[in-house]
């Protein structure tokens, strides 16, 4: 049976790498083939069933997508608030929509909405009617940084958008969930560390600040503030012991214990407090995964059937794929899956004798588990986050017992007290808050240690996979094989670590939404032209896009940063960039980035064509226009200039404007890209950097028509890219060579999977 489950799971996991979904007809044919093969070739049958299942899930998600009439148009919805993500002035929440424009939905949709200055306090459980403007799930698409679109897909969110101010926005029902009610009571205490208490007790992390996330991520304890299997296991253990003890005492007064199996009774009853705890945590997927494993274990335990760790994991995975198939597209699933597998591996490799449950044995097991988790999870963490925490094993060795054995039980006891005695609850939460202050001080201390964490260069997933095999091989018994031969597995890593000098230079137009950021790199050096926007919420393109990419490429500094002009969508993230990485020099249109500026950078000529020294720099027309070129290829970056400045450039530089790559001025606005300027540049590649379904409708249809008209008149054909559709656009150019430019886009070439390229893109 195990091999059949493995076949189904492997086929389901293969959907992560599908370029496109099998058509409905092919899916039906595969289902028929699975039915025919299931008797004689069961492994093949289960494998085909896995493919059919995930293909069906994919087509179902496509069916739930919005119609073209609902996209970017104000629509009225009715639904119930399922969770509050950020409870601030600009609130963010998820809503289960049951009605759109007076039409009841047979299948509810899940929307994620922002609401600036809401007219009432949005809370979980409320039924509301809202006027919203929505769009399909979409995120920035770059080679590094958080993949927001994939995360939305894994969460089953069908649309994102915002609430428009309107008189029809109405609170229909103010009934809140029990979880929300208890959370409100706790927040009424106004404790200093209530944001941490909310995360530990209710799994609500909307009050945590960016610096809080930085602290737990760099010290390796982020898993402790996400209610998951670790917390549920604690609740299950405490519930089991308590039920067995209390039940034994009470029952013994009336009946003989020989007639009742206390273990079976306690195991069965434990399911209910753990289910209640899952509800308290908002039925998050990590908690549901753990509860499902507990349910399976309990069923087999009550049926007097032994269920080993391997079978339990396989059955849990199969059930979870059937119940929550989209979760396999989220990183949390793989982190949890790997962690559980590693824990099982540790107890297989170093089993604990039943006769030895001394304190020393328990501590030894804890140390082994923590060290193996740190070491074996390192390739996955390094691949995804490009950093390694050196203090994580030590911190977790102290933090895990402290949080799970002291803080969490204390918080749960306080929650129970909330129902009948607020004074007791306040005393317990205050005690937990006091303990948290010491814990956070300890984390701050470890973070300040030298080399507490360090960033590493990003390598392909295949490289990290070989590193994982090497580490795993070192932990496994020798089986008569000389472990020295395992070093061969490190060769891919060593080859990437060796210094490499290439004869290419690369231009990366990054996907920064409505804004601009361009990176030019050569021989482990980089320059940046514009840095994207920064927003009042704290979200900025430097931390989200630029720094992760620089870090992924192993770059510790930037030689030059050009700021075309001071608009937020071009210069807003500059402070964050300067804080996050060493920058040798910043040049703006108000100082050196002006006419007559020219330098040689690693053989590439960088020259500023505009603005004139006497020009007024207060508007878009003061943008710094630069050209980067070698002997055969070049790129022109005009910022946000309009047609009047383009005309001046045509007159000033009758021959110098020629370029292979053109960054369309002002994101494709109709005020720019005149026909004469387009003709004079004669670009083979044209890029429009703008936000997805932006309100200005960039690039404008008139601009595209002008490009097409110029190409028709010249008998040429340009290739057009919009970052909102293609994501990051990369041009790889042979230095001083007439070879054709190699072009890669993130969505089509770097990450061409079906779930990243919905029909709306």
Task: Please tag this protein with its features.
25 helices, 7-stranded mixed sheet, OB fold (Dihydrolipoamide Acetyltransferase, E2P), 761 residues, 45% helix, globular, alpha+beta
Describe the protein's architecture and organization:
This protein is α+β, with helices and mostly antiparallel strands. Among the domains are: 2-63, no CATH class; 75-176, OB fold (Dihydrolipoamide Acetyltransferase, E2P), CATH 2.40.50; 461-497, no CATH class; 504-752, Metallo-beta-lactamase, Chain A (4-Layer Sandwich). Helix content is 45%, strand content 18%. Helix 7 (210-219) crosses helix 15 and helix 8 crosses helix 9. The radius of gyration is 29 Å and the shape is globular. It starts with a helix and ends in an 11-residue tail after the last helix.
Q: How does the overall form come out from the CA principal axes?
A: globular
Q: Report the strand count.
A: 22
Radius of gyration: 29 Å
CATH architecture of the domain at 504-752: 4-Layer Sandwich
The helical percent reads 40-55%
Low-confidence stretches: none
Q: What's the CATH topology name of the domain at 504-752?
A: Metallo-beta-lactamase, Chain A
Instruction: Summarize the biggest pleated sheet.
Output: 7 strands, mixed
- CATH homologous superfamily name of the domain at 504-752? Ribonuclease Z/Hydroxyacylglutathione hydrolase-like
User: Cα distance, first to last residue?
Assistant: 41 Å
Instruction: Count the DSSP helices.
Output: 25
How much of the residues is beta strand, in percent? Answer: 15-25%
CATH C-level name of the domain at 504-752: Alpha Beta
Strand arrangement within the widest β-sheet reads 13-12-11-10-9-21-22
Give the class from helix and strand content and strand pairing. Answer: alpha+beta
pLDDT average, as an integer?
Answer: 87
């Amino acid at each position: 049976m195990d091999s059949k489950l493995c076949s189904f799971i492997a086929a389901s996991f293969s959907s992560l790498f599908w370029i496109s979904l099998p058509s409905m007809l092919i899916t039906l044919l595969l289902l028929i083939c699975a039915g025919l093969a299931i008797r004689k070739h069961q492994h093949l049958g289960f494998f085909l069933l896995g493919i059919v299942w995930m293909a069906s899930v994919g087509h179902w998600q496509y069916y739930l997508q919005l119609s073209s009439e609902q996209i970017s148009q104000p629509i009225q919805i009715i639904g119930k608030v399922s969770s509050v993500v950020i409870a601030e002035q600009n609130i963010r929440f998820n809503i289960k929509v049951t009605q759109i424009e007076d039409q009841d939905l047979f299948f509810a949709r899940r929307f994620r909405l922002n609401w600036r200055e809401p007219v009432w306090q949005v809370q979980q459980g409320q039924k509301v009617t809202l006027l919203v403007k929505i769009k399909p799930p979409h995120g920035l698409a770059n080679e590094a940084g958080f993949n927001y679109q994939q995360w939305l897909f894994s969460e089953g969110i069908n649309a994102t958008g915002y609430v428009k101010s309107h008189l029809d926005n109405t609170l229909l029902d103010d009934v809140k969930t029990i979880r929300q009610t208890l959370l409100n009571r706790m927040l009424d205490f106004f404790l200093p560390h209530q944001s941490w208490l909310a995360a530990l007790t209710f799994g609500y992390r909307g009050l945590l600040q960016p610096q809080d996330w930085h602290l737990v991520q760099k010290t390796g304890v982020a898993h402790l503030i996400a209610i998951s299997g670790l917390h549920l296991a604690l609740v299950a253990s405490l519930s089991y012991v308590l039920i067995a003890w209390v039940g034994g005492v009470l029952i013994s007064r009336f009946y003989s214990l020989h007639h009742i199996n206390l273990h079976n009774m306690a195991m069965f009853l434990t399911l209910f407090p753990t289910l209640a705890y899952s509800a308290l945590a908002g039925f998050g997927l990590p908690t549901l995964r753990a509860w499902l494993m507990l349910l399976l274990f309990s069923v087999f335990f009550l049926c007097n059937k032994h269920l080993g760790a391997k079978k339990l994991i396989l059955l849990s995975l199969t059930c979870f794929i059937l119940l929550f198939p989209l979760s396999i597209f989220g990183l949390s699933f793989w982190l949890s899956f790997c962690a559980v597998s590693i824990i099982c591996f540790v107890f297989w490799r170093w089993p604990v004798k039943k006769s030895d449950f001394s304190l020393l044995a328990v501590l030894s097991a804890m140390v082994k588990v923590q060290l193996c988790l740190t070491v074996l999870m390192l390739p996955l963490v390094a691949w995804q986050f490009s950093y390694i925490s050196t203090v994580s094993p030590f911190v977790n060795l102290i933090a895990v017992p402290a949080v799970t054995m002291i803080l969490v039980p204390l918080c749960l006891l306080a929650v129970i007290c909330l129902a009948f005695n607020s004074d007791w609850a306040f005393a317990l939460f205050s005690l937990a808050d006091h303990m948290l202050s010491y814990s956070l001080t300890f984390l701050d201390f470890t973070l300040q240690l030298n080399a507490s964490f360090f960033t590493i260069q990003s390598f392909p997933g295949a490289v990290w996979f070989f590193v994982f095999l090497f580490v795993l091989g070192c932990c496994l018994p020798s089986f008569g094989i000389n472990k020295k031969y395992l070093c061969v597995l490190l060769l891919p890593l060593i080859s990437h670590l060796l210094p490499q000098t290439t004869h290419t230079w690369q231009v990366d137009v990054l996907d920064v939404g409505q804004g601009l950021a361009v990176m030019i790199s050569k021989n482990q050096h980089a320059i940046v032209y514009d840095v994207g926007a920064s927003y009042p919420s704290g979200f900025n393109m430097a931390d989200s896009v630029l720094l992760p990419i620089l870090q992924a490429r192993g770059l510790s500094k930037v030689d030059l940063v050009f700021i075309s002009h001071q608009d937020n969508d071009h210069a807003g993230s500059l402070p964050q960039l300067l804080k996050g990485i060493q920058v040798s020099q910043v040049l703006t249109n108000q100082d050196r980035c002006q006419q007559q500026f020219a330098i040689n950078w690693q053989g590439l000529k960088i020259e500023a064509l505009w603005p004139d020294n006497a020009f007024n720099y207060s508007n878009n027309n003061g943008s710094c226009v630069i050209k980067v070129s070698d002997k055969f290829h070049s790129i022109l970056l005009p910022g946000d200039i309009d047609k009047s400045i383009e005309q001046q450039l045509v007159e000033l530089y009758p021959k110098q404007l020629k370029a292979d790559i053109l960054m369309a001025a002002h994101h494709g606005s109709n005020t720019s890209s005149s026909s004469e300027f387009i003709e004079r540049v004669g670009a083979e590649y044209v890029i429009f950097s703008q936000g997805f379904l932006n309100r200005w409708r960039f690039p404008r249809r008139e601009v595209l028509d002008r490009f097409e008209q110029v190409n028709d008149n010249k008998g040429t054909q340009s290739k057009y890219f919009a970052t909102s559709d293609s994501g990051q656009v990369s041009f790889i150019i042979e230095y001083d060579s007439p070879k054709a430019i190699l072009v890669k886009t993130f969505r089509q070439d770097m990450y061409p999977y079906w779930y990243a390229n919905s029909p709306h893109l």
